[in-house]
Amino acid sequence: MDTTTVRVNDPRELLAYLPHQLGFAPRESAVAVSLRAPRGRVGLVARVDLADLGHSETGPQVARGLVAHLGANRACGAVLVLYTASDPRGIDPAGAVARAAARHFRDAATPPFGDVAVWVVTSTGYLRLDCDEPACCPAQGRPSRDLDSTVVGAHMVLAGSCVASSREAVARIDRAAAPARRSAARAAQRWLRRGSDAERDGLEALAAWRAQSLEAWARCVEAVRDPIARADPPSALLGRLEAGLSDRRVRDAVLVSLVPGVEDLPERSLREDAAVTGAEMAAAIGAIIDPERAVSPPPGPLSTHAHALERVVAHGRHGAQAPALTLLALLAWWSGDGARASVLLERALSDDPGHRLARLLDDVLTAGMPPGWASAS
Q1: Is 63 in the same domain as 155?
Q2: What InterPro entries does its record include (predicted)?
Q3: Please, are residues 184 and 234 in contact by the beta-carbon 8 Å criterion?
Q4: CA–CA separation, 31 vs 27, rounded Å?
Q5: Per-residue pLDDT tens for 115-145?
Q6: Which distant-in-sequence residues (6+ apart) come within 8 Å of 146 by Cβ?
């Protein structure tokens, strides 16, 4: 939830800011930047693969989608930044994709936004695509070290921001040690069998199993609450939680528990005889997505909840992490970290292509929809 103001009339400031906003150093990417009234303040930052925007057949459609996202962000102008290995100016075939990407974006963006500046960041420097003055933009661009001494770069570093080496590294979760993973897997299998037995035994038994699964979530959160110690919860507890999250009702109760001020709604939502209304659940979710009643994610609980879910993934069985990964993606999106949310969702959908919540959230990211608090600002 960064509030840094970037002076777009100084390209160095903008180019230094974008990797911090994305969370990683882009490679072979096109990044569209929304400029918002009244002073051209940076708004939405949207990244696509350079090859997709530069594709001869589908590139124009990708460009129109980017422009639509900027328009939904109430942009009054736009900047395009291309990240590619070498200088794309001239007629060198190696730069053809970058040149096509710029052309597609400008064709789509000129009617609503007018002239669009296109900057290029190469492996050695940065340049303006249309600049052919050697004194201004020499071959391979102005030196990259210029981007290391900017006001916005210094501000971001002092604020604790760091840039991952790649998009995939944004959402890297290191695996736990093998013995801990085996212990968690055995616990998950036992708890899944308990759940199947409870389902056969009737609604009361199933409600009790779900309540105990939600209790496992509360215990895991409590175990990682101390930001200094942050010892891993017991492996058996993490396995129980992994198994519990495979139940939609448990997962939704955990989701609601992420929202401040819901009191005992998560617990009540698991009792078959509880008077839990759709309106209560909708109001809780609305705190995340609805601009009219949205709240910003509280940083402390957000970090604790994310760490608890990361421990589930770190200890979990391969291919069974879609629920935890999707909840992590939701937390990332809610906090405004679309890059991390996107990578986590890719992993979730790889584990379970039909996971409903993951698909819904993926649609939200594809549409460029910001969390409610960001839309309201």
Answers
A1: yes
A2: DUF4192
A3: no
A4: 10
A5: 999 999 998 899 999 998 888 888 878 888 8
A6: 12, 125, 126
Position 219 confidence tier, pLDDT thresholds 50, 70, 90: very high
CB-based contact 151:13 (threshold 8 Å): yes
Classify residue 185: in a domain, yes or no.
Answer: yes
Model pTM score: 0.72
Token readout for 307 is 């760490």
Query: How many percent of the chain have pLDDT more than 70?
Result: 90
The CATH code of the domain that includes 130 is 3.40.140
Residue with tokens 């290029």: 120
Q: Do 96 and 30 fall into the same domain?
A: yes
* Residues making up the chain, counted from first to last: 377
Q: What is the pLDDT of residue 23?
A: 81
Q: Hunting for tokens 């993951």 — which residue is that?
A: 358
Structural domain of 78: 11-166
- The continuous run of DSSP H or E covering 328 comes out as helix 322-334
Paired with 82 in beta bridges are: 30, 120
β-pairing, 117-121 with 75-83? parallel
Q: Is the pLDDT of residue 2 over 50?
A: no
CA 189, distance to chain mean position in Å, is: 30
